[in-house]
Amino acid sequence: MKTHGLSPGKPINQETMVAFIRASGFLQELENFANRLNDDFDWDFFPKRYRSDEARKVTSKWGRTAIEFATPEWKPTITAGFLHNEWDHGVSFIDPTKGIDLLLRIEASPTHLGNAGPTLADLNRRKKSLLSCAASALTLKENGNDNNHSILIIRSSLADVIGNASSQQSQIKAVHEKLKEWGQILFGDGALEGALKQSGLDSGM
């Protein structure tokens, strides 16, 4: 049986799968996808202070490939893109059988989150709306969010977002539309920016 590959053998593990994905060039594909999102679509549903050309860039780190919309001192920063390794972000994939997650995260250094109460109150009143169009929306210290930088982490399985889109362009458009939907829920009425200011997370802007 061993010579025909029919013996029980070793179970497949996450480390092996991640290594295969990287070897197959999948992370490079994600980076290309994120760069097209960044370059070809508008992001005016995020407040102006996050959209400076100097601070906005695509990065691949911490298990994610995403556009960073940074503010001075990261007070806060928005990241929008793809979570391909769940460990650093302290969450579990929405559905591992479907693959990676689409991500929108508001993050800051824990040293800046001592007065996060006004921000968390504002985010929590938006959760029902977020969960009507996202699989998960977890705020700081909420059960399931084990990263103390994540003021808010919103996710859906990427496979569910792109659905039956058959071309890269249609997939990118579907991703942008979903991120826009989340962004409008968060920032559309302007109140979250006021709450962030009360929490000292306005970068002095």
β-strand percent reads: 15-25%
- How confident overall, as mean pLDDT? 91
Radius of gyration: 18 Å
Low-confidence stretches: 1-6
- Shape descriptor: globular
Helical region count? 6
How many structural domains can be distinguished in the coordinates? Answer: 1
Description:
- The protein has helices at residues 14-23, 26-40, 117-131, 158-162, 168-187, 191-198; strands at residues 56-61, 64-69, 77-83, 101-107, 136-139, 150-157.
- A 6-stranded antiparallel beta sheet has the order 1-2-3-4-6-5.
- The radius of gyration is 18 Å and the shape is globular.
- Helices cover 36% and strands 19% of the residues.
- It is of the alpha+beta class and 205 residues long.
- The protein has one domain (26-198).
- A hairpin with a 2-residue loop joins strand 1 and strand 2 (64-69).
Outline:
The protein is an alpha+beta fold and 205 residues long.
